[in-house]
Amino acid sequence: MGSYHTKQVLTKIGIFPGDTTPVADLRSLVQALRVTAIKKDMIRIGPDKDGGYLLPDDLDGVLHCFSPGVADCSDFELDMVNRGMLAFLADRSVDGPAVEHPRFRFIKKFLASIDDPADGLITLDTWYHEELGSLSNNSPDAILQMDIEGCEYEVIHNMSESLLNKFRVLVIEFHKLHQLTDEYSFKWMSRAFFKLLRTHAVVHLHPNNNRRAISYGGLAIPSTMEFTFLRRDRIQPANHTPVFPNQLDRKTIKTKPDLALPTCWYA
Question: What ranges make up the beta strands (E) of the chain?
Fold first, then answer.
């Protein structure tokens, strides 16, 4: 077993070899990512199982949904098109959405930080421009729902600020969060988060119960979490502490014990 793989395995079980992230730095990131309570209610879009997500009830005027990472479920996108949106889907690992719909637009490509047609790679900016043309101040808002198995970091790093501002809501499943304890990984991963936080705030979190959270410096870090962001110009703060789990949250893996969101992420 190679040293890198060994380090990954050890980190997942709470052993931190090599250069670790200063606790103060990780604590500052978690503090910045804590859930902001908002006046808008949360609604569930998609199935009552894995593939469904909680979004703020602030979708009026949103006309486009970009959804990279298709796999075998398109219920989220179906809910969006039933609200009058066009849904753009991308995934090189499948030949199309799980179901057909006239308002679906599918490309057989993976999102990445470069455009490489020969390898089936495309950037989010290029994809948006190919589908909708140039960005303009009066173009309608969009939603980004992204579950691309760890490639989310490079896609975020590559995304232009003008495109980021077009997304009213971002729903992103972040993977390998246990690697935030590694000093090198922390720099790469945290800069993606701080880029998003310049324009958006976290309004909901849901941990994946595929494995337990690790403990580090008094913080509990789930390995995988679904983050819902709302653009800051849409936020109306509420004077209460959000309650977790939300009554609309559902376990990601039905056969495993649920994983509660650790209080350091919201209280």
Answer: 42-45, 53-56, 62-68, 86-90, 104-107, 110-111, 121-122, 141-146, 167-174, 200-207, 214-216, 219-221, 225-231
Reduced to 3 states, what is the DSSP secondary structure of residue 150? coil
Neighbours of 171 (CB within 10 A): 23
Query: Who's near 3: CB < 8 A, 6+ residues apart?
Result: none
Render pLDDT for 15-40 as a digit per residue (tens, 0 to 9).
556 689 999 999 999 999 999 999 99
Nearest C-alpha neighbor of 229 from the set 145, 112, 150: 145
Determine how many CB atoms are found less than 10 A away from the CB of residue 73: 17
* Residues in CB range of 97: below 8 A, 6 or more apart: 70, 74, 77, 89, 104, 106
Per-residue DSSP letter, 38? B
Rounded to 5, what percent of the chain is helix, strand, coil? Answer: 30, 25, 45
- CA count, 13 A, side-chain hemisphere, 34: 17
Residue reference for tokens 């490489």? 116
- Tokens 């020969």, residue? 118
What amino acid occupies position 129? Answer: H
Q: What's residue 134's pLDDT?
A: 72
Distance CA(209)–CA(222), nearest Å, equals: 8
The answer on pLDDT for 54 being more than 50 is yes
Do you find a cis peptide bond into 245, omega within 30 degrees of 0? yes
Residues 185/171, Cβ–Cβ less than 8 Å: no
Mean pLDDT of 168-179: 97
